[in-house]
Amino acid sequence: MLKILKYYKHFITVKVRFSDLDIVGHLNNSKYQTYVEEARIAYYHDVLSLDRTNLNFNSVVSRISIDFIKPIEYGDDIAIYTRLFNVNTRSYEVHNLFVRREKEKTEIVAKAQTLMAAFDYNTKKPTTLSEEYCAIVRSFEETGEIPSEYIK
To answer: What backbone torsions phi and psi does residue 8 show, to the nearest 5 degrees?
Structure first.
């Protein structure tokens, strides 16, 4: 098991479908963002105990970057680990690790970092997140400081 995974308490698993592939047979780059979105929504529902029909997360994507480390291919079982960093009432960072497990081998095949900004869906303007929201996430993420070499 990879040492960094002890710092990530939330994950989902995704089975790569044929329709997720590009012409070369690798996971299409747009699907990485779809998987990141699925992982982020699962995190919100699980950690914040939101009803599955509630899609108002009071935040929007401000920036996203993805590091493609190794190809992901049809049939791969990928675990997408999620952790929130720098949580405050205006914004927070979502870090994702795409992990492939094959028999005895576990490897990180991609990383994603998303900056989320607090946003009011009704007024379509920036807003703030409640202190309660921030406290719940900080409490959940309380697993110790991650060494800097893991978050680059």
So the answer is: -115, 110
CB atoms within 10 A of CB 72: 23
Residue 125 CA to residue 10 CA, distance in Å, equals 30
Q: Say how far apart CA 70 and CA 32 lie, in whole Å.
A: 13
Residue 43 phi/psi, 5-degree rounding, is -60, -50
β-partners of residue 101 are 106
pLDDT tens for residues 30-71? 999 999 999 999 999 999 988 778 778 899 999 999 999 999
How far, in Å, are 25, 66, 79, 117 from residue 94 at the CA level?
28, 12, 16, 11
Tokens read off for 148: 């800097």
| Domain edges within the chain | 3-143
Q: Does domain 3-143 have CATH number 3.10.129.10?
A: yes
SS3 content of the chain, % helix, strand, coil (to 5): 25, 40, 35
**Residue written as tokens 């675990």?**
79
What is the rounded CA–CA span in Å between residue 32 and residue 72?
10
